Amino acid sequence: MTIAPRRPATAPQTPGVRHFPQGFTWGTATAAYQIEGAASAGGRTPSIWDTYAHTPGRVRNGDTGDVATDHYHRWREDVEIMADLGVSAYRFSVAWPRVQPTGRGPAVERGLDFYRALTDALLEKGIEPVATLYHWDLPQELEDVGGWPGRSTAGRFADYATLAARALGDRVKTWITLNEPWCSAFLGYASGVHAPGRTEPVAALRAAHHLNLAHGMAVQALRAELPTRAEVAITLNIHHVRALTESAEDLDAARRIDALANRVFTGPLLEGKYPADLLEDTRSLTDWSFVQDGDLATIHQPLDFLGVNYYTPTLVSAATGEGGHGSDGHGASEHSPWPGADHVAFHRPPGDTTAMGWAVDPSGLYDLLLRLKADQPDLPLMITENGAAFDDYVNPEGEVVDPERIAYLHGHLTAVHRAIEAGVDVRGYFLWSLLDNFEWGYGYSKRFGAVHVDYPTGTRTPKSSARWYAEVARTGALPADAGPGR
């Protein structure tokens, strides 16, 4: 997926139809722990998510990723599905404990062979592989000696990046270091609703910094191993934060959450510094002395594009009572994922919601893309995740009809196209997700896939949204409306 400069669309223009630029990337995405299964095959050892999922009470219904959608054994079928969908790229994650089981030492060739075979099959079908090095499956042995709050984990990650690049660099042109480090740091170490399930606010801030450092070190490691044509990026779940009112108190609450959600990463990654207001907001918790000399220069590496994951906006206000965390859409916990923001309240935005309880609001994506353009005008963007969970089922005719998802995708693709028209350099879009899968703390109760999976049998059934998306990807044209959804 070489990220070539945008070119004007050349297809005939139809009234009401939005034509995406020629060369726009149409993809789909998954994550290793959510789909692979085969938790102990080929020398793989436990990740923090294996441990977390096997801890009673952590995951809904006691679900685990031990089998997941069995992609490890059914990947050939899944590649055929992608080929039928006509996508031009597939974003997958490499499972760190499958490639380097203890997080130390040489790679396990059996683990690498799985990804070699997968990428070869993708390339044979004309589908560009896009590899994400880390989608939350830290080897448990590294957590046991400190995890992401420990500085040494950043160096381990860079070593792992070198191993992956040496094995797959002749096949994979596009690399993403980390997926949503906010979730790894703040859901994993502050609120505890993600693995490893710790509730230590200072550890979460330390983890955020060491994830940033790991990214910078990994970019250096990748560029040392990969051909010059290779492209390296990071994916952030940038929150589009809105204040409930225009009052000074609510605007300050939005500023505070923007610092913790976004600028804790974009500051050092894109500007080489942590925001002064973030440091002040968290001063009662830490003096940030874990940021050592030279760290910011290491973190501030040139990127070929920025990956953007978006699902729903974030609506906040100043809290009016004791404490204010409330429902922020990231999972229920007595512990806040927002260190230093104890007096911020979260609100559910108005309008329709998905099965996750997340508001359907494409305007948030449009506004977010314009903000990124204003902040970093020369940095290309890629929508690396966007999608929705709904209560899908196979009807008596053997079909999965999901007009709600089609409407969601249509609205958000319209927002992307509007942003492109406004001058934002958006190079592609990856639908989340290819398959229904293990949805982290929700287990198998939430279905994000374009392809329905019957978990007892593993049977795959493309939903009506998959056929709809396939047509948009094939033509590069977004119809004027979402249609009937069949």
Overall pLDDT confidence: 95
Note the main sheet. 8 strands, parallel, barrel
Radius of gyration from CA coordinates: 21 Å
Determine the N-to-C terminus distance.
31 Å
Share in β-strands = 5-15%
Count of DSSP H/I helices: 15
Order of helices and strands: EEHHHEHHEHHEHHEEHHHEEEHEHEEEHE
Instruction: State the helical fraction.
Output: 25-40%
* Assembly context of the chains: single chain
List the helices and strands and how they pair.
Blueprint: E1 18-19, E2 25-29, H1 32-35, H2 48-53, H3 71-85, E3 89-93, H4 96-99, H5 109-124, E4 128-134, H6 140-144, H7 152-168, E5 174-179, H8 181-191, H9 201-225, E6 231-236, E7 241-243, H10 248-271, H11 276-281, H12 295-299, E8 305-309, E9 314-318, E10 344-347, H13 362-375, E11 381-386, H14 403-421, E12 426-432, E13 451-454, E14 459-462, H15 464-475, E15 477-478
Parallel strand pairs: 2-3, 2-12, 3-4, 4-5, 5-6, 6-8, 7-9, 8-11, 11-12
Antiparallel strand pairs: 1-15, 9-10, 13-14
Helix pairs in contact: 3-5, 7-9, 8-9, 9-10, 13-14, 14-15
